[in-house]
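Hey all, quick one. A colleague (J.T.) asked me to put the adenosine-5'-triphosphate job into the tracker so the inputs and the structure tokens live in one place instead of scattered across chat threads. No bug as far as I know, just bookkeeping. Sequence used:
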Amino acid sequence: MRTHYSNEITQKSDGKSVILYGWVHEIRDLGKLKFLILRDRDGFIQITARKGATEDVVLHKIEELSKESVIEVTGTVKLNEQAPKGVEIFPSSIKTINKSKSPLPLDVTEKVRADLDTRLNNRFMDLRKPRIAAIFKIRDNVLRAGREFLANNSFVEIHTPKIIASASEGGTELFPLSYFDKEAFLAQSPQLYKQMMMATGFDRVYEVTYYFRAEEHDTRRHLNEITAIDIEMAFIKDENDVMNILEGLVKSIIKSCSKCEELKVLGKEISVPTDIRRITYDEAVEMLKDHKKFIQWGEDLDTEAEKLLGRIMKEEYNSELYFLTQYPLKIKPFYTMPAKNHKYSRSFDLGYKGVEIASGGQRIHCHDLLTERIEHLGLGKTGLEFYLNAFEYGMPPHGGFGLGIDRIMMQLLDMPVREVVLFPRDRHRLVP
Ligand code: ATP
Ligand code: MG
């Protein structure tokens, strides 16, 4: 419908006839002189009407416009040093395409700030703010850069079921649902299916996936519906091969995002890591102890410990990103490969500025060891037969990880997780 987007109009467009579409961002009525700011996907443009120069019907039209209505503006581009981009539009016609109700639930110009709940309740309007839209354009970039890196490294994109019959990460934290006459659950992760793909000869797969987790969290980093990039790769020597892929993936995502134009709108800069340090769980526990934070060996790091470790890594090692390796086996899921010393595992977490953004490791590929671990943990094989079956007919050594998209976004932009998800699902929020 349009001849131009607002940002396509430059001083070079002087004298051109244009048809623009967008929203009424602001109106400034100075009597004989009227300014209308039109907003579209890419920015703003000033429409200037002057008594004597502009037709009366157009002047009246501007007087009766309501903010946030969708309009069509036909006019001519004129140079004007005083206009925001050195150009403005002299309108010959303004039409309302769809009138907006008033008062508005949110102020899109952000002169009046709203709290996050009000913003999320009116997310369609919140996203009209260039600052908020910028977050999701950067998010698009995370996915684009991630997919490009994985494709270049011979990973095949797959989809696995989200309606499943049994747990993949232990019995708790599942959302049950009724599936005709059967009980079913929403998937906590694609874990079992992506591992089964290693028995197919695909060798390297990834999924941009949802995790559904019925955890009663109330933190700045937990949601109940999560998005992640999940990968699995076969014929690995050990977990280091998997860490190398994760390192490459995260570096290329961050590097690509650091060049995003939208960072200017947000007033942010992103520093690109050169080296991702690898420290063991034991070393981390020692470092924390030196800072008076005591973790019982074998316990997972709590929020405070994660945060403190992020600070130590940044201040003492100049490292915003760091791997924690060789976790105690007892706090990792049943499919995790034990290390030579069975107290430890071949698993790792990736921390970014004090928050876990990924977990992964080498998996058990031998059927007997796998069933032994399942029995040892008292999990029971019922419901896992379809999975275990894939380990009896030639399963190569393999490993993988899950990288939280919401988590990498929140740490990239230093924002709470609800800010970087369009329509977040948490314990209290199911609508919109
Ligand atoms: P955490 O300990 O931070 O709660 P986790 O260890 O339970 O996370 P994993 O099962 O390792 O999570 O999931 C892999 C990745 O998915 C995490 O590293 C994180 O990036 C992301 N993730 C997991 N749970 C959540 C959640 N509730 N909200 C947001 N992201 C999550
Ligand atoms: Mg984890």
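Adding what we noticed when we looked at it: The radius of gyration is 27 Å. The mean pLDDT is 96.
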